[in-house]
Amino acid sequence: MSAGSSSSPFRPFGWLGAVRVRAAVVSVLIVGVAYVLSASGVILLLRNSLYQSATNTAKAEAEAISFLITNRGHVPTPLPISTEEMAAQVISTNGDVMRSSRDIAGQPAMADLSPGPGKFATSTGVVLRVRRFTHVRLDLDNRFVVAAVGLKGPGSAHAVLVAYSLGAADHAIGLVELSLGIALPVLALLVGALVWVLTGWALRPVEAIRAEVAELSATDFHRRVPEPAVNDEIGRLARTMNAMLKRLEASNDRQRQLVADVSHELRNPLAALQAQLEVAAAHPGTASQSMLEGSVVEVNRMSQLVEDLLTLARLDEGMLRLRPSDVDLDELVIFQADRLRAQGKVEVSVKGVSAARVRGDEAQLARVVANLSDNAQRYARHRVEFATVPMGDFYHLMVTDDGPGVPWFERERIFERFVRLDTARAHEGTGAGLGLAIVREIVTAHGGEVWVEDAQPGARMVVRLPSAGQIGPQGPAPSRPRAEPRVDESVSYGAAHLADSESSG
Predict the structure, then answer these.
(1) Helix 435-445 and helix 289-317: axis angle, to 10°?
(2) 355 and 267 in one domain?
(3) Could you say which of 121, 167, 362, 404 would form a disulfide bridge with 140 (CB–CB 3.0 to 4.6 Å)?
């Protein structure tokens, strides 16, 4: 069993949590509830309307019979009715049936309704409380609405009762209820199927992204997932995935390049060391002091390269924690200037150095100054100058050489790792090309900037660091954001320094 399957055990009903299933179920529930509420409202309105219509018909028929009796002066026998769905009676004030329609001849009073002359009464209202009069025997059914109107007949008061069948209304309501009941599951299935299909269609870009990512391997980071044209959640997901793949591709390329560069850098000193050791082993009695010194040089070179790589790795991973304190930057500069003077290769000037207290890690800042000093000495023809200048809440450290300078289009690239310029600037390119990369990483971790200016002739490395009054960083930032470049008098800003420097600081 794979690691993925062991961490995600099989769940028999795990499919119930799928997006399409949940979307379909929720849609069916919402539509079902809305449908039931709407259907209930329709049935209620239909019942009220039909029952009110039946009541109005019964009232109209009762008025017609009472008008007939009043005009003729007597009660006709049998009482005339306009449809077979009706029944009519004339009752006295004591409830005796005086006349009735032919279909209920001989039946007792249909209801206990005796309104005064000219008054109307119905059996328990119109719609919701229609009585069932079982003693009214008609051929249709036994559900009726009964309306009564009082009248003043010859010699006494009477009431005309008219019953109207609710069978047709109940039948229509039953058909509507049956139709709506059948339509509910059909509608639910249609909505569920439609939502299932539409959700699947909407998630097709996600499936395409998943399929593309599933096929990726360590050598396929150049591939990209398809990006929908619409700027919705899926489109943003695709663009985020592609941005991540681009970062992974760049990281993978850097790793491959690092392996190649390190292999190349270690090959020459290892080969030289191997040759010297083989000579010493073949001729143990003839090993000269120069051979031993050459071996020591090669070992030191490899040690320096390994140390620089370890420093960059720690900076990349945020493992090289800075210990910020108030540091006298001018003292670090004077120390490195004295070191260069002692070597006697170039003339050194510190006329521009003034008191400069910055906030940072003293050991790492010393390494920055040492790398810049060695870099300037390597490319200087005759002279190296140091200066520290206050600039508001920052101090600028400037290290200037009178060498060939750095072309404007290379001033950003020289801070990359293992970079050597194909110009006169690289005529003594004996380093590994990591010194300036370390400078940029350390300066950025301190919240500063580093860039290159044209010294005419030569190049001027400028480091900007926060003064001691400013709050310095507690360690290297995880993402190490670059400061926004600004326009300087003579260069594009924000790029940095010479091709290589192998100083350890």
Answers:
(1) 30
(2) no
(3) 167
Specify whether 28 is located in the same domain as 117: yes
User: Position of tokens 């049998």?
Assistant: 78
Q: At what angle do helices 362-379 and 329-343 cross, to 10 degrees?
A: 40
Q: What is the DSSP letter of 405?
A: -
CATH assignment at residue 269 = 1.10.287.130
First to last CA, the chain: 52
Q: What is the pLDDT of residue 96?
A: 84
Q: Compute mean pLDDT per 10 residues along the chain, 505 residues long, and list them.
A: 45 59 89 93 93 89 85 80 86 83 83 68 40 53 79 68 86 93 91 88 81 74 76 80 83 73 70 74 64 70 72 66 85 93 91 90 90 90 92 92 85 75 50 77 89 88 84 40 35 31 34
Side-chain half-sphere CA neighbours of 464 within 13 A: 18
Which of 202, 217, 236 lies at the terminal end of a domain, its last residue?
202
How far is the C-alpha of 36 from the C-alpha of 485, rounded, in Å? 65
Contact 57, 71 (CB under 8 A): no
CA-angle at 455, arms to 451 and 458, nearest 5°: 95
Is residue 308 located within the same domain as residue 335? no
Range of 276's domain? 251-317
Burial class of residue 139 in the structure, from the number of CB atoms within 10 Å of its CB (0-12 exposed, 13-18 middle, 19+ buried): exposed
CATH classification of the domain holding 452 = 3.30.565.10
272, 291, 317 — which closes off a domain? 317
